[in-house]
Structure formats: C-alpha cells, structure tokens
Design brief:
The protein is of the alpha/beta class. Helices cover about 35% and strands about 15% of the residues. It contains 4 helices and 4 strands; from the N terminus they run E-E-E-H-H-H-E-H. It has helices spanning about 50-60, 65-75, 80-85, 105-115; strands at about 5-10, 20, 40, 90-95. Strands 1-4-2-3 form a 4-stranded parallel beta sheet, covered by helices on one side. Helix 2 packs across helix 4.
C-alpha cells in the first residue's frame, strides 16, 4: 500500500519523500527548474483555472464547496485511473503543492481522492 505525504514545493527535498509529484497547474513562483526536485509534474489533475480562481477569491469559508467541486472534477478527469495506477507503483509518494495554506489546499483533496479510489496491488 502506498503511503501518501503532503509537502509544500518550497520545502527541501528529503530521501523520505519517495516519489515526488508536483500537482499544481502553475510553476511554483521563485523556484528554478534546475533546483526544484520532482519526479512528475501532472498539471492535468490540478483544479481547473475557474475553480482555483473562485476559491482564492472566496477564501477558506468556501472550503467545503471547493472540496466538493474539485472532487467532482477529479471524478470526471479521464487520466485519473492511470495516474492513480502510476502512484500505486511506489511505496511513498509526496504530493507537492505551492499554497501557503497547509490545511486548505488541493493536495489534501487529491490525496483523499486517490486513497479512496486506489486499487490494492497484489504482491
């Protein structure tokens, strides 16, 4: 079973991070392509631009609605099964996000969605 961790993109990489996946649509401001360490950047699973902009304008009070709407986007996204299968090949996966808010961000919703939808891999 894969262990999923969440980490800000601006935090230093560590060996314990395992497979590092950057999950935001926009490149993390101020980080260089040469020094930012990630194994996969999957823009297509990030919230739509419309949803992201709405949530930033609405603020944390809109968190339950953001969770619902982003979960609906993930469920409708045709690449999710392949993405989840790819992640399940790794013992530890760290989902990297850019948000300053560590309690209200897309990585939390994505992690919970992946865990709910991953299939057990027989050893």
């Amino acid at each position: 079973m894969t262990n999923y961790l969440l980490k800000r993109a601006y935090s230093p990489a560590e060996a314990s991070d395992g497979y590092r996946v950057y999950i935001d649509r926009l490149w993390p401001r101020g980080l260089s392509h040469e020094t930012f360490q990630y194994d996969l950047w999957e823009k297509e699973i990030s919230p739509s631009t419309e949803l992201r902009e709405w949530f930033h304008a609405a603020g944390d009070a809109a968190w339950p609605q953001f969770e619902k709407r982003y979960t609906e986007e993930l469920a409708a996204n045709p690449i999710m099964p392949k993405f989840i299968a790819e992640l399940s090949q790794h013992r530890t996966v760290t989902l990297l996000y850019s948000s300053h808010d560590e309690t209200h961000n897309n990585a939390i919703v994505l992690r919970d969605y992946i865990i709910a939808h991953q299939k057990e891999n027989p050893d």
